[in-house]
Amino acid sequence: MAEALLALRNIRVQHGATTALEVSSFDVHAGEVVAVIGPNGAGKSTLLRVMGLLQQPGSGSVYFRGEQATPKNSLEMRRCMASVFQEPLLLNGTVYANAALGLKLRGLPGDQIHKKLWPWLERLGIAHLTSRQVRTLSGGEAQRTSLARGLVLDPDLILLDEPFSALDAPTREALLLDLQEILAETRITTVMVTHDLQEAAALGKRIGVLSQGKLLQLASQREIFTRPVSEGVAAIVGMETRIPGVVEQTAHGMTTVRFNGGTARVRADFPPGAKVTLCIRPEDIDVNHYLGERNCPKEKICIRGNVLRIFPSIAHYRIAIQAECGFVSALASKSSFTELSLREGDDVSASFSLAAVHVI
Amino acid sequence: MELIWQGIVKAVELVFGGDSEVWAITWLSLKISASATLISLLLGIPLGILLALSRFPGRAIAVALVNTGMGLPPVVVGLFISILLWRSGPLGFLELIYTPSAMIIAQVVIAFPIVAGLTMASFQSLDPNLALQLLGIGASKLQALWLLCKEARLPLLAAVMAGFGGVISEVGASMMVGGNIRAQTRVLTTATVLETSKGNFDIAIALGLILLALCFALNFLLTHIQQRGQMKWPRLS
Fold first, then answer.
1. What are the CA-CA distances from residue A159 to residues A50, A53, A65, A80, B231 (Å)?
2. What does the alpha-carbon distance between residue A239 and residue A230 come to, in Å, rounded to a whole number?
3. What is the pLDDT of residue A2?
4. What global pTM score does this model have?
5. Facing residues of A319 across strands?
6. Which residues of B fall within a CB distance of 8 Å from A153?
7. Distance of alpha carbon B147 from alpha carbon B145, whole angstroms
8. B129–A83: do the CB atoms touch at under 8 Å?
9. ipTM score of the complex?
């Protein structure tokens, strides 16, 4: 594999007695977009600050283009990168002055700044705002200014720290779409951290999962969302149904798992007696009124339970079911939900195909 | 009322009649307090920035000392500087007691914590991530520091105003370490005290008016700079 554009090795950051970040290895390759997800306080911002050479780790090294970052060469390296934060963090002044700041810091003459900056101002839809004072901008306009300030630097690496989380939903959607296009066109290497799965899925080709300062998994988007390596990752990536079970027998790559209230034959390879967890995404689970064991299709696994709660949202209903084996969470489209006319307390059967099950 | 009216008439005569002694006193006041303010800025701004932006052992104590220093009673400063500079004191060999230099030293001790404290507050009012953001678009550390100073310039001007205002109107320390010697260390405030005690209210009023006018002129100028381009509060109805 080609040499990584940016590589972290044995990074450790302490905040007093607690370890804020502990990452043994993290490679970012040229041209890729990596999203890092994790709950608040997982160390996402710290990770990005270490990558951007804005914070020196307690121990470990950062390599940029194969060269180790030191206090001596860090300015030179930082000038190949750009950071965009959750808050736009603009200076008092006009939109133009703010967007031009990075180029000005590099000593570029005014006419060249103008030539470079203008296309970006137009691309981000803020060209008509150039002479506006930044304090009069809306949140979305300010964040676009901040993005322009970073993108105009033509960085080798752009680091986005929850760039959309301070925006309202429509503004966020619009900016997310724009950024998706820009990243696809320019192929700027990008690392974005976010706590929002949708944003991560929209931008990240590879996704990392960070929790309590530790990088739990770093893999392709598909892999992360369907084959988490641990229950912790499964929880973070939205595999809400996690059924504990014990392996009964294994043969030819098929494993029979017994759980409270049933068995399942799934594609996995675990020794008999092993304690495992069956993980299923909510959108892979169908819910029907319980009509007896026989009504379960052969190729499916069915679990009987009671509807605990129903959470309505715009396009979907989230149905929480209390079953013998634990808690099952399903997502039903509005139309299918209306057809079922489910109510809390109803006796239901939750079914899912074998392919939807991921065993940990 | 007669007393006040006569005083004001006499004061106007003194001010606009070109009384050389009054103007000499004014000039000396300005020189001493401006020097003291300038030195306080040179010492206080870096200390304030350091206290605001960095973490080091003993920082909490330093911050507490600066905050205490912001409210130092001038007479206490006068007392300590007098003892230090007294002929038989530890710094007596410098022969500074009852000189303008001694007054400058005392005024620096008064103004420097004010400048440091307000500088610290003005930097702490900036978003803590702003410095990171500036570094994150390729600013060198020096460039980032300069941009932060520019961003905090409005509250920094308040530090200048408070520092100068504190020392030009201060009387206790100047009296004690300067001695109020005519044509040498007599400044607006000490002269006002002296003339009032002698019952020369006209001269005292004249000196007082000049002091007020000076403070007003300087603050008007700095306020004008400070408020330029400031966001207007919406009118509340």
1. 11, 11, 16, 11, 32
2. 11
3. 63
4. 0.83
5. A310, A330
6. 137-138
7. 5
8. no
9. 0.85
